[in-house]
Amino acid sequence: MAVTDRAIASIQELIRTGELRPGARLPPENELAAQLGIGRSSIREAIKALALIRVVDVRQGDGTYVTSLEPQLLLEGVGFAIDLVQDESLLEIVEVRRLFEPVATGLAAKRIDDATLARLDAHIADMERAGHDQEQLLHFDQMFHLAIFEATGNPTLTSILAGLSGRTVRARIWRGVTEGGATEQTVREHRAIHHALAIHDRQLAEAAALMHVNTSEQWLRAVLGRGAVGE
């Protein structure tokens, strides 16, 4: 194991064991190096790496602190990474969505409140008004699905699904939808999901979400088939 990797693992162990708790200030660099028996340069590189993945927060002139370690913070990098996925690998992302999104929508059907249902209805109305404006459709589509994910009451699941439904993937799907003249069909699918959620029917919600993900995959395949992924 490289020395920097050992430094990262050692700091992670301090956090896992509770010696460094969320919000705690890390010892000064020289003290941490002595405590772990690792050179200061490796400690410095380890802290930079942990800061990138939001495990620690480096505050200039103040010190380095453990972050809240909340799932939505630690999983931010998922969406960034997925936005870089290219070509056929995007279909693997859709396959993962097919496994998670219907189940999450079914869970939301049991937990969603009237205020969130009203927000979903408004997002659909905004999509209908957007017509074939891909940028507007993309925005309201993201807002619609994020509200459903949040309605599960599970921040970890919300963060994972938000990452899997990244802007780049959705933009490519909506390109296929609008160019294929299927905007109205896709909006109807959103209506079907909303209806299932409104009557709190878990199985119907799962089925409606599965159909929607399958449609998304169909239009993504159309975009990939035209070689438009990199455009």
Walkthrough of the structure:
With 231 residues, the chain is mostly helical. It folds into 2 domains: 3-68, Arc Repressor Mutant, subunit A (Orthogonal Bundle), CATH 1.10.10.10; 74-225, Four Helix Bundle (Hemerythrin (Met), subunit A). The chain has helices at residues 3-16, 29-36, 40-52, 71-74, 76-82, 89-111, 114-130, 134-151, 155-164, 167-179, 183-198, 202-225; strands at 56-59, 63-66. The longest helix has 24 residues, at 202-225. The chain is elongated and about 65 Å long.
> What percentage of residues falls in helices of 4 or more residues?
over 70%
Question: Which regions contain 5 or more consecutive residues with pLDDT less than 50?
Answer: none
Q: Return the average pLDDT rounded to an integer.
A: 90
Which CATH class of the largest domain?
Mainly Alpha
Amino- and carboxy-terminal Cα gap: 40 Å
Total strands: the figure is 2
Q: DSSP helix count?
A: 12
Looking at the structure, the CATH topology of the largest domain is Four Helix Bundle (Hemerythrin (Met), subunit A)
Q: What does the main sheet amount to? A: 2 strands, antiparallel
**What spatial form do the alpha-carbon principal axes imply?**
elongated
CATH homologous superfamily grouping of the largest domain: GntR ligand-binding domain-like
